[in-house]
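Fold it.
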Amino acid sequence: MAEEKSFETSSHVINNFAVLQEYRSNYGQTSVFPFTFYQDEEGRIRQQGGPGSKHDIIVDINRYPSKTGFAALSWNNNAYSGSTEVRIYWTDVNGYIYERCFSVNGGSEAIWYEGSLRGQYRAATYSSIAATSDGPRNARVYYQEGETNQIIELLRPGENTFDPFFINSRKKAGLRGTRIGADTAPLYGSGQTEIFYQLPNNKWTNEGGRTKFTPTFDSPAGAGIAVAGSSNQDKATVFTVNTDGKLVATVWVKDYLTWRSGELVDVSRKDDIWSSTQSKTYDPKSFTTTVYFKKRGDGPSDPISRIGFESLDNWSEDGQIVIGSTDA
């Protein structure tokens, strides 16, 4: 039997960011406003826009945040109350996992506070992190374990922020340093969610989905990934990068029971990719998915680019988010 080729990620400094969305209503019309979390050159995790102060430091450098990525969640983001709950999941340089929380019901005095993850669990120092939830319930956090390289799922089933997380499942081992993508549309109350990551042979796989993820292209080790929707609900798009440095959208086509891919634009091969889904607004040209990424060669302080996406035949570049802007 031929020896299986192994891959490892490089020491590339990743541009880490996450983009959440608020919905605001004015005279019966709903508009979508993104707000951003990003890691600056020194390693601080910062907020730009959204609930609370516009440029808060969420995790300062005296807590030694790692530069392998962080995850973000929000819910109750409706036209009347905005994003009332926000969660940030991050690891320190030793791999210990933490949770930061913001609750709008604190009023004008609302501040970021510590959640129930306070270093009880330890990821590999090279692990990325992903998270998803059914609104306030069934918060799940995914990370890579150091000794086994398995993907671990932590679950907090209750609605109370301070309820404990526990290890709910172990997935098969992934590529050392793989990025992890979690679906944005888990089946409410079903206990099902879908994640995507690279195997030790550098091929993509998914766990928890209705169908096997079988892209026809290769990706570099440690490529960024974002997931919009879920094959469990017959509507999923996976955004990642191929070895040519192209952002690729791979769509689950229910009618033909297959995945189809298409190249979009040039991107950085190993930086974060983020996607958000939303309802159609009053603008007839609006899209139901937005994907955020860094262009090839961009650094942490360069703008985050974005694409509005509806299908492989209907997408458009849709401006940038300027890091450090006071308008966000």
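DSSP finds no helices and 23 strands in the chain.
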